[in-house]
């Protein structure tokens, strides 16, 4: 059947919308947990989007709460209710794949990866994390490092201590600091930050391979080495502040600068907070080292955005994803965020000394995925594991916690 002029015009309009012409008017809702102190890097990216697509109204919807603990619950309601945001932040890896991909709720982005040349622009480790045999599921905007220990160089000098290299050494340094009147040598915050610390104690004790074996089902959580690492975690937690559950990660980071505590194990969004929000100079205002026992390992996680099926503003969302994956997008976002670009062609002259050191380690270290930030286990495990940590911190029952974790691993399908 031949096309009428009206049909032709409609087809042209539709084609313009899907190719993302700058002329296209429209809307875009992006959903994330990057609000307030966490906002500047995302704001810079949104600004870039608006420059490219000036007629698109961007709704930058955020649900605050570190590591997405609150945002994930809201997202769930929206996905199940049939009103998905046009694109949402999600940790690359099992957090997305084990939840919304297996439920058939996400669009396969293989075509976009091909047309944008991303299969070459992103390293194999990152591509593996976001792919299954059926497709590629989200666009990573960064690579964060989880295994970093932050400190205040001037305060360590004043106390006469150095950064501990192993967890047993940390426990000794903790005793020294307590004798010097530092009541809480380590600062931790709410539950997810304790899970973050736990993963670093585990990796620092079991080694990178030992950690991977837990999530491939090769090693059981009830293995004596894992039980022993729980006991070490208990001793590490004895060095921490007693008001942890009421503290955000930013408030915990503040205590390093004020000198109330000596050490904080946190991902490198803390570098973004120190430099972008607090205007501190890396190496002077704050210092960093790999978490004890993990000097040859890079514990990674990546923030990514996906495209749910059936969104209202698909063309605008695709343009958002294109920007996220582009060199310009990544090199705008990451210098403010504390992370490094997921792309291999990033311009490191735009980054500070902390990020450059992370970029070097990213290339030379053994890479493993973070549990606390969605890379290695499905959300069903992650969210239930929070209760295991809560109970352990009160009871200090290593065998009990290990058995509970093992039961969860079996239920989540990776434990044998
Ligand atoms: C992580 C996320 C980071 C940062 C952090 C604190 O899970 O990957 O980008 O937002 O939580 O909220």
Automatic annotation (TrEMBL):
Q: What is the lineage of its organism?
A: Bacteria, Thermotogati, Deinococcota, Deinococci, Deinococcales
One Pfam family hit: SBP_bac_1
> From which residue to which does the signal peptide run?
1-24
Report the locations given in the UniProt record.
Cell envelope
Its name, as the record gives it, is: Probable sugar-binding periplasmic protein
What does it do? Part of a binding-protein-dependent transport system for a sugar.
User: Native species of this protein?
Assistant: Deinococcus arenicola
Keywords (alphabetical) are: Signal, Transport
Family to which the UniProt record says this protein belongs: Belongs to the bacterial solute-binding protein 1 family.
């Amino acid at each position: 059947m031949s096309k009428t002029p009206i049909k032709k015009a409609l087809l042209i309009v539709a084609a313009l919308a899907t190719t993302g012409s700058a002329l296209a008017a429209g809307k875009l809702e992006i959903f994330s947990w990057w609000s307030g102190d966490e906002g500047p890097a995302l704001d810079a990216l949104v600004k870039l989007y608006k420059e490219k697509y000036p007629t698109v109204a961007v709704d930058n919807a955020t649900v605050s709460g570190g590591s997405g603990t609150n945002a994930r619950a809201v997202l769930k309601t929206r996905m199940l209710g049939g009103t998905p945001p046009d694109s949402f932040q999600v940790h690359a890896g099992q957090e997305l794949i084990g939840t919304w991909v297996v439920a058939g709720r996400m669009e396969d982005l293989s075509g976009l990866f091909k047309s944008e040349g991303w299969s070459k622009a992103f390293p194999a480790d990152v591509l593996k994390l976001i792919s299954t045999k059926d497709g590629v599921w989200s666009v990573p905007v960064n690579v964060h490092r989880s295994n970093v220990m932050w400190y205040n160089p001037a305060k360590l000098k004043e106390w006469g201590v150095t950064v501990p290299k192993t967890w047993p050494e940390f426990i000794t340094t903790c005793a020294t600091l307590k004798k010097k009147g530092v009541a809480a040598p380590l600062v931790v915050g709410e539950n997810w930050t304790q899970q973050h610390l736990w993963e670093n104690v585990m990796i620092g004790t079991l080694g990178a391979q030992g950690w991977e074996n837990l999530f491939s089902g090769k090693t059981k959580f009830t293995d004596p080495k894992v039980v022993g690492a729980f006991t070490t975690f208990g001793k590490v937690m004895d060095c921490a502040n007693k008001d942890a559950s009421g503290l955000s990660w930013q408030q915990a980071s503040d205590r390093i600068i004020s000198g109330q505590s000596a050490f904080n194990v946190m991902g490198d969004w803390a570098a973004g907070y120190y430099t972008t929000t607090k205007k501190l100079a890396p190496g002077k205002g704050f210092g960093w080292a790999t978490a004890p026992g993990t000097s040859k390992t890079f514990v990674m996680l990546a923030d990514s955005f996906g495209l749910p099926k059936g969104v209202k503003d698909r063309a605008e969302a695709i343009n958002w994803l294109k920007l996220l994956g582009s060199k310009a997008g990544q090199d705008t976002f990451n210098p403010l965020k504390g992370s490094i670009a997921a792309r291999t062609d990033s311009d490191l002259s735009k980054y500070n000394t902390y990020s450059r050191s992370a970029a070097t380690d990213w290339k030379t270290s053994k890479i493993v995925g973070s549990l606390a930030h969605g890379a290695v286990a499905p959300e069903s495990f992650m969210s239930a594991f929070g209760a295991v940590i809560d109970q352990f911190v009160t009871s200090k029952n290593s065998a009990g916690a290990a058995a509970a974790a093992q039961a969860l691993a079996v239920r989540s399908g990776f434990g044998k």
